[in-house]
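User: Here's a protein and a ligand (magnesium ion). What would the complex look like?
Assistant: Let me lay out the input and then the predicted complex.
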Amino acid sequence: MKLSNYFLPIIKEIPSDAKIKSHQLMIRTGMIRQSTSGIYSWLPLGFKILKKIENIVRDEQNKAGAIEMLMPTIQSAEIWKESGRYDSYGQEMLKINDRQKRELLYGPTNEELITQIFRDNIKSYKSLPLLLYHIQWKFRDEIRPRFGIMRCREFLMKDTYSFDLNEKNAEISYYKMMLSYLKTFERFNLKAIPVKADTGPIGGNLSHEFIILADTGESEIFTDSEIFNFETKLLEYNDVSLKKLSSHFSKFYSSTSDLHDVNKFQKQVPKKNQIIKKGVEVGHIFYFGQKYSKSLNAIVNTRESKSVNVYMGSYGIGVSRLVGAIIEANYNNNFMKWPKSVTPFQAVIINLGKDNDTVTIKANNLYQKLIHNKFDVILDDTDANPSSKFKNFELIGIPFQIIVGSKHHDDEFEFKELGKDSKIVNLDSLISILKEEYSNC
Ligand code: ATP
Ligand code: MG
């Protein structure tokens, strides 16, 4: 991409209504623009990052054996009346009437709709276990939308639903999702801890929120530092790994403020290990058994020809909130550095010789070579002065810069990783460095 052809509306000043860093940076770097309270447009830079995050979430869901589908944003009120949540969900639900005066709503979540699809199409235990998911926009009419896309009204969520024949199998599905969440967040370089949580309006028996530590977070967590000593890389989706996982996370105290028990915390967690911190909720998993399968009549026949209401769980990741959460976890002194897995471009080429044809040709040639080698790079070919080019790209946080000026020979490039000193490299080593840096993404 050449910057002169791109749409990147950068703002110099810190927007006065943006209270937290991620919101400020997303506005300043032209990632998002507010349409109306809590509703945002995603401009090209923000959209590109959002898509990268979405694809990683999708990849890890697929690896865990979940199957992708797509349900609509608009749902009928009927099924919500059947489940009893049409009234109990409260004012966060946006209710709509169509021209025939039929009652519709913009989906805040999809337990009802997926249960309806299940009950109309699945009748036998032979179809179980089943994990279905979709990645779709949700609407919740939050009373106080704030912090940009972190707590907004329209947001992108990945939601998975599990269907099992009995409680024991349903627990396996639950821990499969827990493992897949840990693997997902690690790919963004985020350390997210599953914390025992209240089940809220979803209802049910077992629930964990996934929290990343950040001072600007709205959740408060109480836990033991030992909980972080856990490697998920080698764990697979089998009984042994899932047992290891569940026993590790049930061994250490972890709780949100809703369920926090001060006495238990003091007794169970040695003083030096006690963590009481703010965090951002990036995911939430629930096991709620037969709650919806009973109210919506989702029944399967067992091997013994008995009828059983299916056992269910639901599992959400805030895909759009993750964009802000990754910024909160990575910014440093006003500057961003994107994790390599989600950076909008792998490197930026900064042409410092806007009036110098030789330099411009050299920068263009480098751009063509990198594109040819399948790197996703952006070339700053604009007339802006060098200092504003540097400032803008430090603000945006693309991890690598290649600076092309008149100082160096034909096959010499200044290569700089953000936050480190630059070095001079030739084209071949430049390509191998980038290949190496992005080999795991
Ligand atoms: P919160 O406690 O933050 O209000 P929730 O518990 O109501 O969230 P869930 O129903 O668990 O949310 O939704 C799954 C995920 O969707 C959350 O973990 C969060 O990452 C994301 N999410 C929920 N509400 C919002 C929102 N208003 N804006 C952006 N993301 C959200
Ligand atoms: Mg939640």
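Summary: The chain is about 35% helix and 25% strand.
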